[in-house]
Amino acid sequence: QVLGGSGDFRDVPFAFDSDQLDSAAMEAVRANSAVLQSQAERRVEVEGHCDERGTSEYNLALGARRARAVKDAMVGMGISADRMSTVSYGEELPLCKESTESCWATNRRSHFTDLSR
User: Is 0.70 topped by the overall pTM?
Assistant: First the structure.
């Protein structure tokens, strides 16, 4: 089931203060890669998002590293880099606004925006 995704794409979750792709993140990356492999005309923007903890500057940098990690993993799975762009929104576009661990976990993500529509 798609959780917090955009259409066919799944959000990629991240641990606190991390840009590392764990097993849950890799599962989402593989699913997103499969969508792009089956539909060669599609292009996406990979967004990096963070929870509210940390400075805005730090979170913008962390979001950028998260988006880049996802893009790099997908390039490693055969998706052409020119089909993907990256952007960081840091903590600026939270899905959840409560100061709880479950809410923060929801906000720590890479999100895919379909640019081909």
Answer: yes
